[in-house]
TrEMBL record:
Annotated spans, Disordered: 394-421
Basic residues bias (residue ranges): 396-405
Short name of any one Pfam family annotated for the protein: WHD_UFL1_5th
Domain E3 UFM1-protein ligase-like C-terminal stretches: 601-698
Protein's recorded name: E3 UFM1-protein ligase 1 homolog
Molecular function GO labels: UFM1 ligase activity
Cited PANTHER family: E3 UFM1-PROTEIN LIGASE 1
GO CC terms of this entry: endoplasmic reticulum membrane
Domain of life: Eukaryota
Domain E3 UFM1-protein ligase 1-like N-terminal intervals: 3-279
UniProt record, GO biological process: protein K69-linked ufmylation; regulation of proteasomal ubiquitin-dependent protein catabolic process; response to endoplasmic reticulum stress
Amino acid sequence: MDEILELQRQLAAVQLEGTTTRMSETNCVELVSKLLEAGRVDVVFTVSGREYLTRERVRTEIGDEVMKHGGRLNIVEAAALIGVDLHHVEVELKGYFEERADSARRIQGDVITDDYFDLCTEEIADVLSETGDGILSLADIATKYNLPIDTVRSMLEKRVGIYIKGYLEGGSLYTESHIARSKARVCGMLRGAATPISVGDVAKVLGIRTKIVNDALEELIAAGSVNGSLRGRGERAAFTPSTFEKTRDEAIDNFFRTNQYVELDRLRQFSVVDPKKYVASKMPNDLLLTKMVISKGQVDQLRDAIGAALSSKTWLDSVPLLPATIDPEDCALVLQAALQGDEAVVAQDRFIVSPELKERCWEVFVRDSETKALEVVTAVPQADIPQQELVEIATKKTKSKRKKNKNEDSKTSRGLATSSVRTPTEEEAVEILNAKVDLMIMLEKDHLGESAEDSAFVEALIAVLYSELGSIYSAAEAQAREKLAKEKAEKAKLFERELAAVLPKIEVHLKAMEAISDEGLRTMLDEHLMETYCSDARKISLQYFSGESEVPPIGNFPPKAQKHVRAFVKASTTHEFLQAYDDHGAELCLPPRTLLDKKKEKALSQTLRSEVEERLLPEHEPLNVLLLSSVLVFARSKGGAVLKIPARAVPFLVQELRQSARGRSAESLFRLHDLVVESLKHADAASTTQDDDALAEAVQEVRNAVLAAQ
């Protein structure tokens, strides 16, 4: 107060003093301008132009005006009140805010200080205490004071608990009384609840914030004011009354004991928030699946049924033993738990098949594949398959240029048959099983006598087997081709051995025929040789080429081979046949004919004579003894040459021998011949004992003489 009085006295003294120097207004303006130009002073012109303000004075004026207006002043309004241009106010505000960085700020064109926020907070506290609910929203406060919500939130966060006795949460400001009233309302509502109710629903019905409801519930449950449990957090948290939990658990337990299962969706209908956690705590020994839980007893029952089905080597449909509402995924999990390492086949996550039954079905397809493979590989004309491709030894035996060139061409042009066995479709595979009546009887009903709908089991079994059917049929074809090749190779080797045996005999007999002077006899013997050994050699040769057990018609041979086959068929003499073999044998893949040397010829002749002798030794029929004896006598007289003669040529051969053969064996032969001729002449008349004895004696004599001579 004393300071104010002193200032008043000083002001009065100044006013009473006289003027020593007077300057005009123009001079003052010019003087200030000079000072500004010289940089001696820094002032701001007022809008009126009659006053100057220093920049410090502008900042001071801004602060004074803000204070006069309660701590909040619009910048444009401040420029008008101070009387300077808005630009200068904007410039000086930077320094103003730097000086008051903690207490002043610019918000939406207004300068606002903490004093203003303090006044607002006091007003809000008064309003909050006067309202019946004890709660205000930040949006309403922001609208009332024309401030951003974030600014309002920041303002209140610093002053709640100081100016305001309450709580700030989310978008609301509320008091202790509001919390107490809300807690009482929540308690009243939940005490009357008979079913689970979510925190969000409670908050919506009572018009209370979710956090307040959550906090109130936790306190009420902890204090025992409300009986029940709270699970979860936030709006999804749910309160379950104790009475409901007890009733619900009893209902679930009754359903589970009656049906041996319960779906997780049904647990949710019973207001179980976390069914899997509930099952883990209430049913620890039972089997939890993706969509249901089934009892351990039902799993054990299924395990026993599976064991019985496997022991009886049949199959089992698990569906009748499981809940009707179980889905395939859960069914697969149950079967996995029930099997426990048993060796069984699971089809379509439903059927259990014993390994023995699977193997039996497998054998059906194996046999079918073998049958079809055999049909395929034998359907190709065998004459199209050269024997040298089936028997390597046939191509390695010869080194002749003739066979090498022609066989290579034949191999290139013809090649092996390339047909393949088609794997049956799943529908065809079902038909293959259906054809086995005894097997289908077993597949119609499972171990418990249950039938799967619409051949579902057979189709499921086929689906399991089908992935490997392709390998079965391809393997069967390969095996069939290999087997056929082996058979043909063995047959070809047999043909080669037969040819190797018969061709030298033809040469030996042909050479023996050269010693006969009678042209007619030679012709007769040549015809007989063509009918016997040559015919056999021709048949073997054509069988060798065709691969057939019987010689096919010429038209069934490959076109390129038909002319060579005709050459064999048209040969009318032994020489023509051997010539045809030499000229056309290579084209028919026949082994080359090897000419006999002296040593081999002698050995073969000896073998043939031995065979005749062996036949002669037990023989008693005069005609046969005459034939065999004449051959041996001829061989002895011609240096060992052996003939092959028919019975009709014996008289001519004996006549030939009468001219050249000598000795006891020849005489005995001639005597037997005469007796046989005489016997044949009187064949119609009754023979006498004397004649028979003479004939028998002649037979014995010639046999002894011929064999002794050898």
